[in-house]
Amino acid sequence: MNVSEAILTRKSVRAYLDAPVPVDLMEKIIEAARCAPNAGPFQISVVRTAGLRQKINDRTLDAMIHSGNEFLQQRAALPGYQPLYGAPVLFLLSGPADAPYGAVNTALAAGNMLLMATSLGLGSCYLVSPTLAFNGPNNLDLVQEAGIPDGYKLQCAVVAGYAADENKFTLGERKRKGSVHYVG
Ligand SMILES: Cc1cc2nc3c(=O)[nH]c(=O)nc-3n(C[C@H](O)[C@H](O)[C@H](O)COP(=O)(O)O)c2cc1C
User: From ligand 1's centre to the CA of 128, what distance in Å?
Assistant: First the structure.
């Protein structure tokens, strides 16, 4: 698949098969992140342990429920909603808490990861919801277990895996976002 096809076919996948991502594919996704435009340090924690993914999932769900944000609370209340969607691998992208471009660096890296995953035949989804669990109160155990460096803050996450047929939390039709204004 070339880049244009990956861009046009990528979508947020929110249901995964219980099948591991082969290590060579995972490494390609990580490599893609590290080739993105960048203006500062960041780290990718690759969470392959099912137990830790479950813990992060549950704490994220709890944080969504208690967020006070109506959109997040509605999502969390959907029957069967799991914020990590049962994906077999979770990438956590963190950067220095006080760095000016931490969010941009990690978002660009994550964008490359999504496109690489698509080109490899994998589903993926960009997530900010885990930041509610990691950057909220009583988070130190998660930060330590995920190996996020001292002084770093979780900026975003990516899940990837083989897409399940049923994808009930994703709209079937892909929409075009944003607006365009031509000058001249
Ligand atoms: C800043 C940002 C945060 C997002 N956070 C989440 C998230 O926490 N959970 C989720 O399922 N999707 C999340 N998404 C994915 C969007 O919901 C998704 O990209 C959007 O609905 C468009 O759908 P598409 O990716 O299939 O084109 C996030 C996207 C962005 C840009």
Answer: 8
User: For position 58, which CATH number holds?
Assistant: 3.40.109.10
pLDDT at 165: 86
Residue 126 CB–ligand 1 contact under 6 Å? yes
Domain tally, the chain? 1
State yes or no: pLDDT of 167 exceeds 80.
no
List pLDDT tens digits, range 91-111. 999 999 999 999 999 999 999
Q: Is the CB of 113 under 6 A from ligand 1?
A: no
Q: How far does the centroid of ligand 1 lie from the alpha carbon of residue 106, in Å?
A: 15
Q: In angstroms, rounded to a whole number, what is the distance separating the alpha carbons of residues 94 and 142?
A: 13
- Whether 170 maps to a domain, the answer reads no
3-state secondary structure of 180: coil
172 within some domain: no
In this structure, the residue with its CA closest to atom 12 of ligand 1 is 127
The tokens for 45 are: 């924690």
Residue 122, domain extent: 3-161
Nearest residue to 90 (alpha-carbon basis) of 139, 151, 142: 142
Interval between CA 65 and ligand 1 midpoint (Å): 18
- pLDDT-derived band at 136 (thresholds 50, 70, 90) equals confident
* Residue 1: predicted pLDDT: 87
- Classify residue 175: in a domain, yes or no: no
